[in-house]
Amino acid sequence: MATSLQMSPQLEQIHGEIRDNFRALANGFQRLDKIKDSNRQSKQLEELTEKMRESKRLIKEFDREIKDEEGRNPPEVNKQLNDEKQSMIKELNSYVALRKTYMNTLGNKKAELFDMGAGSSEPTAQENIQLASEMSNQELINAGTKTMDETDQAIERSKQVVHQTIEVGTQTATTLKGQTEQMGRIVNELDSIQFSIKKASQLVKEIGRQVATDKCIMLFLFLIVCGVIAIIVVKIVNPNNKDIRDIPGLAPPVPTRRLLYVRTGEHFD
After folding, report:
1. What are the C-alpha distances in Å from 122 to residues 53, 116, 128, 146, 150?
2. What pLDDT, on a 0 to 100 scale, did the predictor assign at position 138?
3. What angle do CA 196, 199, 203 make, to 5 degrees?
4. Of 72, 92, 177, 250, which sits 20 to 30 A from 37 (CA to CA)?
5. Which range scores top for mean pLDDT: 56-65, 158-167, 177-186?
């Protein structure tokens, strides 16, 4: 059927990749029967599951290309392409059913079953096969499109969460940087304050020493003035006291003066 289909180069490439994945899945499940170790079987199932996810993505791209080229292709070509897409979906579901069987055989009940849906409320792989056989082509197209849209929405929500996380991380980093710079400025200001306090303490001590010196000088001058006053008072009270020297610059006390008078009848020539 693949050789009779009329496809664009893009569709042929996607279709070829899907068929290559299906061949790899068929060979993988054949080898799985020959593996006896449960750990190796689990690893092989993980690899096959990844192939199924890749096939699902490619089928979605195949459907998009069909829709893009729908207006340029004849109706019979579009029908053949849609039939091929549904055939690939059924084949993928058959591999999903095989995976479920092997998972149950391994006893790994907690493993996530791979199906065309994204949530736990979606039909299981076996139910998908039964539903696909009972649905028309248009219903299958709608169901596949809906499932792909839901997957796109889930991916978009995940991208938004990642974007929000990056924004929060960036804001946090900016805030931390600002706080670090502010702490640096505070430390510098504290150093300046400490230096100013130290200089002020030294200045206060210097002023205290200067004040003490000035007080000593004033006291000494006061004592000198008191001594000078005492000497002056003693000189005035007892001018004949020879024990006290004359104060330089101070006139000696005036001696007692006698009044000269002329006796009666005497005159000067």
Report:
1. 16, 8, 9, 12, 11
2. 62
3. 135
4. 92
5. 56-65
